[in-house]
Design goal:
With about 160 residues, the protein is of the alpha+beta class. The protein has helices at about 5-15, 30-40, 50-60, 105-120, 135-140, and strands spanning about 20-25, 60-65, 75-80, 85-95, 125. The model has no long low-confidence stretch (mean pLDDT about 95).
């Protein structure tokens, strides 16, 4: 079981940089902008169709990182979860012009704290896949799979 207090502590250790907020309000989430980012600039989603993206968003908790002053969306994340045992963190993206300010780590910390807060019995495991951001996630306690030989996959992308 993931300790909710540990996630809250991670949020305190990695607060959002001044001028940014995290929101789980789907009405605020700019799905067209997110589709553009992911389908043109995210190695894992290049060429993803708008229709597929819409279905993915409908089946997920969606999060946005926003500039406080302008309200502009500068980041996104999705979480697929049963809010009891499992969560899959995916489609984490920070706009190139705001990278390097600690927003990625703090945004993910805020997302995980929100997910934990929604799970009345806690979440046992949060899984993610990344080719290039291990350092971002390690700051929040993510580690390589302890027993990868136990895991299997159907499909290769």
């Amino acid at each position: 079981m993931i300790d909710t207090q540990e996630l809250l502590d991670a949020t305190a250790r990695h607060p959002l940089p001044p001028g940014y907020v995290c929101s789980a309000d789907p009405g605020r989430f700019d799905a067209d902008l997110v589709h553009h980012w992911l389908s043109t600039d995210a190695y894992w989603a290049l060429g993803r169709t708008r229709e597929a993206q819409a279905q993915m968003l409908d089946g997920s908790l969606v999060y946005g990182a926003y500039e406080k002053e302008s309200g502009a969306q500068v980041g996104c994340a999705r979480v697929v979860t049963d809010l009891a045992a499992f969560a899959y963190l995916c489609d984490v993206y920070i706009a190139p012009d705001v990278r390097g300010r600690g927003l990625g780590t703090s945004f993910v910390a805020a997302v995980l704290a929100d997910v934990a807060g929604r799970a009345p019995h806690g979440v046992r495991r949060v899984l993610l896949a990344t080719d290039d951001a291990h350092g971002v996630y390690a700051k929040l306690g993510f580690t390589p799979l302890p027993h990868p030989e136990q895991w299997m996959v159907l499909g290769n992308s």
